[in-house]
Amino acid sequence: MKKLSYIFIISLGIFAITSCDIDKSPYDSITSDDLAQSETSAMNVTLGTYSRMKAWTENWHRLFEYPGDNVALSGTTSDPLFFTYNYQRIPNGSRAAGFWRSSYQIAVSANQVIGNVVEGSSESNDQILAENYYIRALMHFTMVNIFGRPYNQGVNNPGVPLKLDAEPLNHPTRSSVGEVYDQVEADLLKAAALFTESKSNVFASKEAAWALLSRLYLYKEDNQKAIEYADLVMNSGRFSLVPTQTLGDYPKLSPESNTETIFAVKFVRDVDYESNGWFTIGSLYANIQGAGWGEMYASRPYLELVREFPEDQRNNFILPFVVNEAVTWGFYVRNNLNYGWTPLTPVGDGFEYTHNGTTKTVETSLNERGGISYFIDTDEGRKRILIDKQLDLRNNFPKYFITKCSGQDDQAHLWSPVVSRLAEMYLNKAEAAAKLGQNAEALELVNVIRSRAGIPANGLYTMANLGGKSVMDVVMEERMLELAWEGHRKMDVFRNGRTMDRRYPGTHLVGNNPKTMIQPNDNAIIEFIPEAQLLVHEGLTQNPS
């Protein structure tokens, strides 16, 4: 008998959430009758589903974040993440296969509740149903954006199978992108209408449904609705932007104590990562407290953008690995692929360096908003530099550790991945406003985020100081800055018909036929359907090579 790898048997580790902790306990063999007759059973299955989402977040993060231009891998790896990072997809990669499998396991778990709990039978049952509709929507939405083309490239393009029941031998074939979006929309609207209470932000909520609807409508280019649902979240009174002085510590806050997080997948100190997190999302980005591989660094374009204003608190998400405080280097890019560096000598308020036997002054350049860039002469011509103390190198790449996925509750790589937060709502609304020609409002919303980041008043945008950029360019840059390493950048680029420019140092440029400029119509922007699924799933079709 043919079997899908996501055949579901309810035997889940569950967790109970208190005000400050999550305890995990075993849970076995809930039947449909149990679910129909017991609110407690339905809640236990739902808690188990939340628990399963912890493992789901690892491949979710990698598949959405690594193909973007915020990251730079410093060496090759046998981990299949490399094939997503460099757009050299393989049909049997374990990362895509794991994401497919876990997403459908979670969807089937949600369906188990949806199919057996009677709507309207009690407020608590409606709450449980709402949470499961949200979870099912989130699974299908993320799946269609990994395995299907962006919505605006054609609603009839192949999407993913819509799994709307808990029958293990019911194997739906691929629905279209448009059909999947329609189902996600319907599930989220249903969820939003059913919620009866406001739990903490590690549970689905009405506002979490609104937030995901805002993103969905933005991806559909239904800009008025994207604004409408962003406004619902912003005006709900439940969330506020964390203050400027707290922004750099965002990942260190537990979700429940973070006023900006709308929904996050909760991880618990000394429970989820007892080894201090070597095999976590953050461990590839940094070595902290002696833990972590520290091999994937902040990209050169991100560093150049965030460093235009030293006051920008988002600089605190970058940790340069300094090995000699007494030496200052100017780092520049050589031939797109490698770094070079020049020793700098502090002189007054600036620096000097030696080029071809001549002592020269580092050139300081200010843009229209007072943003700072530095330049020197090299054998390859004039180069923009980043000024740092002498840094440790890995394969000639300076170690610019990323800390945005580490440090929760003072544990090295503990992190509760954020699905939605308030800053995204401001930026969703800004993007939608820009597309509707509401330029002044779009810039005002961008400036809220820039001001919160600590950028001074002269660094805010007006129509008079865009410096040749469009308002949409400004919104895209701010999304890149604010939402980095949260799984947005790949979709932001390609759904807007833009080119992913990866002409910067990183091992995505090594090997045969590296992809430096990825066009939005490139087949490589969507993952292959896992090969193992094609073998067991009759009627399932593969994405083009």
UniProtKB/TrEMBL annotation:
It is found in: Cell outer membrane. Residues 23-218 form the SusD-like N-terminal domain. PROSITE patterns: PROKAR_LIPOPROTEIN. Keywords: Cell outer membrane, Membrane, Signal. The keyword Signal applies. Pfam families: SusD-like_3, SusD_RagB. Residues 418-544 form the RagB/SusD domain. It comes from the Bacteria. Its main location: membrane. The keyword NAD does not apply. Belongs to the SusD family. This is RagB/SusD family nutrient uptake outer membrane protein. It comes from Belliella alkalica.
